[in-house]
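Friendly challenge for the regulars: who can give me the structure tokens for this chain first? No prize, just bragging rights.
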Amino acid sequence: MFLSKSAFLSASLLLPSFLAHAANAAQLPVQVQFPPLIMPEAPHGGAHPVGGPANVFIDNANKLLGALDLELVYHVTGSVPDSDRDAVKPKLVSIPGDYANLYEAVAAGPDRGGLAAAIGLPISNGLESGQLLVAGLPFGLHPSEFASWLISGGGLALEQDIYNETFDNNLVVVPIALTSGQEAGFFPERLPTSMTEMCQQPWLARWPAPASGVWHQACQTAGVETTNIGAETLCADPSASCPSEGNPVKHEINTLTFGGFQPGRLPQQLRQLDQVDAYELNLPYTGVLMMKRALGLEKEPNDTVDLSPIIEKAPYFYLNAWHQPLSYIELLVNRQVWESLSEAQRVAIRTSGQASMLATLSIGLEAQGKAIEILERNGAEVNEWPVELLKPLQEATMPYLESRAEANSAEGDDSYRRILDHMRSYQEERQIYFNTADAPRVL
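First reply, four minutes later:
Bragging rights claimed.
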């Protein structure tokens, strides 16, 4: 029900100390993992693949919550970029530092120096199973199918059960954003059609889990051992050209190697500095905007911007997002804080989350045709992954995911097994329809 001003002011005396009042509205601070990166020609919300959708949700929610005397306020975990100073506020807690991740901070709650609410990626929840939620399974559910699994198929209930167990019933999860399949990589050469030859390439590829593990498994089957160097880059200093004076090569790359994940560093910057050979990031248009940012050309129009200094380093651009068919972002609210909100406020937040899932999916898709035109104009050659590589990768997917489920269960965490089995069962029960519902677009 809607609260009157007098009823709200009376009820506000019972709310936790995190509620700061301004213009008769309570403010609920939401710390977001990344800034929106507001820049010219960015999609609604901002250029960042997490911060932008988070901004869309907060904006949508506040349009409903204004009538309910509540306002969500965007705080960013890292530094506030100059472009975002009018849109976001500084962090409330340090991550890592005060807490290992946003999930732990929200579970602690404001009364224990944590957070009232946050927006983040499940991959940051401290559980390896978060990899399956943030990106779906390799060769798995498409975005609309994932949304069905999450909202109607029991996926969200399962996720909430896991969070209840992991965070002592102190965390409420609300889905807020969903984006479509990622770009499938920029490479320095065309991909070969032999898995053995592919695995023998002396490339350092910035590639996320669990897909990097699937790739490793497929290479093992092909008789080639790959390596994973994690957060490290080819040379010790990721901010300098590799190699350069005082920054010698740290890792000798002889076969396909995975790594290059550097907090705060765009993969496009790492490629420009020769710190990685190949990379993927997000949707193609996000890639365009991040290239502009890496080159300091945020204000340059898309029609005239020169992205060739980055693209010429790895000009072979691939689609077919076998490794990450989607991206999923969620709101986390401390349970005590959640229960202090009115039923109308909680409904407005959940409704805004579902509306924002549709909005972010449609916003993301709208710009991709333009993105491919921009990339091609700047020297990218657009390709699809060869079926000769996709087939062994698909065959390696379930054996690898099963091995990770078994390893996690042996260590006392069955969340990987539960999510894998639930998501796979949902897909298998509907696979005939998923495979044949739409007519082929190219005959």
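Residues 5-180+326-368 form a domain with the D-Maltodextrin-Binding Protein; domain 2 fold (CATH 3.40.190.170). Confidence is low (pLDDT under 50) at residues 1-22. Your move, everyone else.
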